[in-house]
Write a structure and sequence with these properties.
By secondary structure, this protein is mainly beta. It is 11% helix and 30% strand. About 11% of the residues have low confidence.
């Protein structure tokens, strides 16, 4: 049909009725399928769905129904930075204090970094390592830790009986002593130090002598390595926390560092006793990453790792 050179297309009432009937049938069948699977829709997602969403496992949901406890914790370090702890060093009062609570109680943690290294905080049920943190218990993170003098607050609600651990979540710091117990309920706690049966005497074996490391500076010839294992105390005994640990270079030379370790480190100008001097700082340097700086003024440039302060290095610009 046309009117004033315009065309209009129309259908018959029969065809319209058929179309409406088909659409109604689709709605009915779809509704039947949906409500027939109602138990599925209201259930938890399948494990594979949770994994694809980035959820590594079920999350403990705890409800605060009991008392509120306040715990003030301070990150501290020994003078050689080898021993780390909360509140006091081993053998001193209040070292890594144990927290006792009941199911439903809540602990409010007030943590402060009174050391010179970087630290972070969290609560876990894992007996070792720095994973499995209880959501809401974290203060900072290994990637964005607390610097010296910084502080934060978090909380932990006990959802079930058992032994939990509050730790420094920076890799390696738990193993150096930054770990305390949270005992929830009336549970038996195994003693960590057990008296072992005496072993039969053995002939002493001669100690292997390490090759002496030259203390003389060497000319800069390429990337300075942060070697594998430098995040564990010991490399400072042979000046191998940075390799080479003391280099000389001409003014204007670009100095490059490469983190060949699996642990995160920093390259920070200054020294552990006085702290950073502000000349250069790589911030957190993950494994495999590099950092560089160009120094134009002659002089001595000592540097260290804020995460592992026993790691020392030096640059002499001529």
């Amino acid at each position: 049909m046309s009117h004033d050179n315009q065309e209009f297309y129309r259908t018959t009432p029969g065809r319209t009725g058929k179309m409406m009937a088909i659409m109604l049938g689709i709605c009915i069948v779809g509704g039947a399928i949906f409500f027939g699977l109602w138990d599925y829709w209201i259930s938890e997602p399948a494990p594979v769905v949770a994994m694809m969403a980035g959820d590594s496992g079920p999350t403990e949901i705890a409800v605060h129904t009991g008392a509120t406890i306040t715990s003030d914790l301070s990150f501290i370090e020994s003078s050689d930075f080898i021993t780390l702890a909360f509140n006091a060093l081993p053998g001193e009062p209040d070292n890594n204090p144990t927290i006792n609570m009941e199911v439903g109680d809540k602990v409010i943690f007030n943590v402060v970094n009174d050391g010179v290294s970087f630290h972070a905080f969290g609560v876990t049920k894992d007996t070792e390592g720095f994973g499995g943190l209880i959501p809401g218990s974290e203060v900072a993170s290994p990637a964005k830790p607390l610097k010296a003098g910084e502080s934060g607050t978090s909380e932990f609600i006990a959802g079930e009986e058992g032994v939990y651990y509050y730790i420094c979540t920076v890799p390696g710091h738990r193993e150096q002593g930054m770990v305390g117990k949270i005992i929830v309920g009336d549970v038996a706690v195994e003693e960590e130090v057990m008296e072992a049966a005496p072993e039969p005497m053995k002939e002493a074996e001669p100690m292997e002598e390490k090759e002496p490391v030259s203390t003389e500076p060497v000319a800069y010839e390429g990337s300075i390595s942060l070697p594998e294992g430098s995040g564990v105390p010991g490399c400072q005994e042979t000046n191998e926390c940075y390799i080479p640990y003391h280099v000389t270079a001409s003014a204007g030379t670009e100095i490059v560092w490469t983190n060949d370790d699996t642990a995160a480190h920093t390259v920070t100008s200054g020294n552990p006793q006085d702290g950073p001097d502000g000349l250069f700082d790589s911030s957190i340097l993950a494994g495999g990453l590099t950092f560089s700086v160009t120094l134009d003024e002659p002089g001595e440039y000592p540097y260290y790792c804020i995460v592992h302060p026993w790691m020392l290095g030096n640059i002499t610009i001529e």
